[in-house]
Amino acid sequence: MNSLNSAHSDSVVKDIVLLVVRVFIGFAMLSHGFPKLQMLLEGGDIEFFNFLGMGPKISLGLTVFAEFACSILLILGLFSRVALGFLIFTMIIAAFAVHGADPFEKREMSLIYLSIYLLLMVFGAGKISVDHMIEKRKRASDW
């Protein structure tokens, strides 16, 4: 029997792929969130999308939380599904509200991020994550 066809190897490959995707997409989003964090910390006049009339500063702060803080959580695999919820919401707003009237090329990046986040939401962070370590420890202590 070929060991590459076993159920165990499929699980290992799946967990490695989930780790690689989580880390890559997390760092990719950090490259969008970090400049926004700098803009927020610099102060001054902030020109940013005013979501639901909350004001550009609050909208920017929420976007920084999602794109920066939640990306770090995603990379670690810590509170992954909660972090993904914020990231998914942010990408929906980016694709359909911020760039809703723009041509597809402007919305494409946020839609790609959205689709990857949805896949990660469905499949979870995998076994190579802090979430899995916490769950494993919980199960061991429950008896």
Report on this model:
- With 143 residues, this protein is mainly alpha-helical.
- The protein contains 5 helices and no strands.
- 76% of the residues lie in helices and 0% in strands.
- Helix 2 crosses helix 3.
- The longest helix is centred in the first third of the chain and has 36 residues, at 7-42.
- The mean pLDDT is 91.
Distance between the termini: 36 Å
Low-confidence stretches: none
- Please estimate the helix content: over 70%
How confident overall, as mean pLDDT?
A: 91
Number of strands: 0
Structural class: mainly alpha
Gyration radius over CA: 18 Å
Contiguous helical run count: 5
Largest β-sheet summary: none
- Identify the overall geometry: elongated
Q: What's the order of the H and E elements? A: HHHHH
- Strand content is under 5%
List the helices and strands and how they pair.
Layout lengths: L6 H36 L13 H21 L3 H19 L5 H20 L6 H13 L1
Which descriptors would you attach to this protein?
mainly alpha; 76% helix; elongated
Quick overview of this protein structure:
By secondary structure, this protein is mostly helical. It is 76% helix and 0% strand. It contains five helices and no strands.
